[in-house]
Amino acid sequence: MMGNLKQYQLPVKVGDCLDYLRSLQLQTILLELYGQLFPIQWSNSTIPLFQQSHPTVYTDREIEFLQLLNTWFPIEYYEELETIEERYTEIYLYPQNISWWNQTFEELSQVEQFIISLLDWGYEREKWESVFGFSSTYTAKPEEINWEKLERLCQTKKPPLQYFSNVISIIDHSSDCIWLDLTDESYESLAWSKENIIYLKSQWGKALELQQQMAEFSVWFETKVEHKKAALKLWNQSKK
């Protein structure tokens, strides 16, 4: 009983008062967003508005909202909702794509090794025979590539070769998808707002689609040497 009563005690120190007001403001924002974004679940919820059953800064209704939100896109601290001791003041994003430069190169997939090599950060051309199963007499440099031309050429091909330019953009962190372009060195956060949540939901859908394309391309790419050569041919055809 005393534990429940303490949450209603007003702070007496200035610093504590400010922290209390910030927490109350964030709580109000989350509950308002819950009602706006999930009106049916909000109306059907049987959880009392300010009930707090867990040793956490979040009320049960806020946890319910964040659990629903996690079905739209990943919430970084989702597993800690019932024990977390400090509120997240913004929507914090974390990378959903490897930062390959922080990995052991030999442990990357063949597709990753190949594309990174095309971008002049991987294997020297004389090693391609032993690594990729074929050698190349000519490979265009990245600075020689017309990227728009590459995208157009890819669209003329059937999947999964059609996904080649998208796979490059995923590995290069230039996909224009916030979830995939984040790196280990570039964490991002957005304010809690309806617009930002809708944006992140849309971007997460794009991320899932691109990841599926990369998965399909990877299987196809690693099946035959001819498929690797087809990707290289498309790359060279995109020269300026």
TrEMBL record:
It comes from the Bacteria. This is Uncharacterized protein.
